[in-house]
Design goal:
Elements (H helix, E strand, L loop, with lengths): L1 E6 H7 L4 E3 L3 H6 L6 E2 L5 H4 L8 E5 L4 H11 L8 E6 L1 H7 L12
Parallel strand pairs: 1-5, 2-3, 2-4, 4-5
């Protein structure tokens, strides 16, 4: 298992990847990265098994703190031993500031 960090612009350049938004539901509904799946960090220790299987998983929050902690937490679980966990520095606020598309509502797209 490995962890790393990228910027919002680097995430935008990747196209379709697995993005987990660890903000609370009300924050997610107000606006999120297109395609991001909402699994709040406050319940991640009970819901981590809902994260789809992928070799690389990108985590986003408001600014990068909660998503960084989510990467750290998951990196210690055997279920994530073979996955690359990536924190998105700048988070959704940086995504918006950079002018990237935002989706509102409770669905990823």
């Amino acid at each position: 298992m490995s962890t790393s960090e990228i910027t919002v612009n680097e995430l935008a350049a990747l196209g379709e990847v697995l993005v987990i938004d660890v903000r609370e539901v009300d924050e997610y509904v107000e606006g999120h990265v297109p395609g991001a799946i909402n699994l709040p960090s406050s319940s991640l220790n009970e819901t981590f098994h809902e994260i789809p299987t992928a070799d690389t998983i990108y985590f986003v929050c408001h600014g990068g703190g909660r998503s960084g902690r989510a990467c750290e937490f998951l990196s210690h679980l055997p279920e994530f031993a073979d996955r690359h966990l990536v924190n998105v520095r700048g988070g959704t606020s940086g995504w918006i500031i950079e002018g990237h598309k935002v989706v509102t509502g409770d669905q990823p797209n």
